[in-house]
Design brief:
Chain lengths: 216, 216
Amino acid sequence: MLKSAALAETPPPMRRGRPRKSAEERDESQRRADLVRAAAQLFRAKGFDATSTRDIAAATGMQSGSPFYYFESKSALLLAVMVDGMAQAQAHQDAALKALPARASARDRLRALIRQHFEVLLGAGSDFIPVMLYEWRSLTALQREQVATQKDSYEAAWMPSLNALHRTGHLQARPAVARLFIFGALNWTVQWFDPAGPRSLDDLTEQALCLFVGKA
Amino acid sequence: MLKSAALAETPPPMRRGRPRKSAEERDESQRRADLVRAAAQLFRAKGFDATSTRDIAAATGMQSGSPFYYFESKSALLLAVMVDGMAQAQAHQDAALKALPARASARDRLRALIRQHFEVLLGAGSDFIPVMLYEWRSLTALQREQVATQKDSYEAAWMPSLNALHRTGHLQARPAVARLFIFGALNWTVQWFDPAGPRSLDDLTEQALCLFVGKA
DNA sequence: CCTACCGATCGGTAGG
DNA sequence: CCTACCGATCGGTAGG
């Protein structure tokens, strides 16, 4: 039962009543979350294939066979990293849009989207999305569909802003292709951005905005 | 001797005199090129770690141990793919720039650079550069330096055009950051572009140009 | 180049 | 969750 929940990755049921989980349940889901976090970090640092389930176990303080108590396969663990990551990214994006004034301009909306995307991509402890971007290949076709649905919904939220900016002539490429190029430009930053370097995420955001839709 | 040549990856010496290579030498360098091409294709399709040297041997019609007669390690084979790929890309880029009219505008120069980059990235049988872009991690630090030098030189050729377009106000982001974003946008196309799809490389080029520096 | 082989590592499982 | 283990695969080598 725990194992199938791991696959479907639905958040815990959140019933209204008081005693939600026994102590053991909380322990188990905590251990499970530890595994996902350690996996995300290792997959990002060394790649999926180069990371052994023993590495992940050790990073979580377990013995070699124990991750398979929580996940039915190494690949299910990878899926969990991606699904959790996309769910977090979507939540952040929703919050960022909701925090915007109702009459914010398309430019301001795009800025907010770019800024929060950088946060999720380059912020401290953000290994989930980079893993999703660079380890597609290691998913089965079925798993890929599942994550693709989340990704499509995440990216679709950008289209209203892009369409509006295209209408006003600020975005000069066709919005559908522009979206692909823009995500490419932003996602590629994980290859070169140095959090310890001189550039801030705010600066990066402003430069990206200038590049795609010009100044002011 | 063959092995060290494989590491340094210098093209065959090309002496002036007549009998350049014996038949065996030509055979050997042909077999070597076969290995590099097969490796590039497999590394791209399945990734470096998921490709065994046995896969590569089989794709070249050899037995399992034979690739090690030509390359001292699997990693040396990966390096060869990248070094050969960058050398080809650089040659194409030089040719594309030389084919331009002497008084071509900065916009035309950038268009030519983008167009030829797409060719090298997405054209038929172009597995070398995608491998270089997505298998960095599998190189040793020393190997990485070697390829980085080639890549720096390749990308440096874009700066005059970007600087000029910045001066005239067509490129609104700082050229140094713009270059990073632009290569991200272009390189990311290997993730989504379908050569069998409706979009042509010419169309893609024009849309990219519009996105970064606007129309006309 | 092939044949035959080695040592190491890996994902995964049984049984508790 | 741990212990103990299996079968498979892999990079690489010796010896011709």
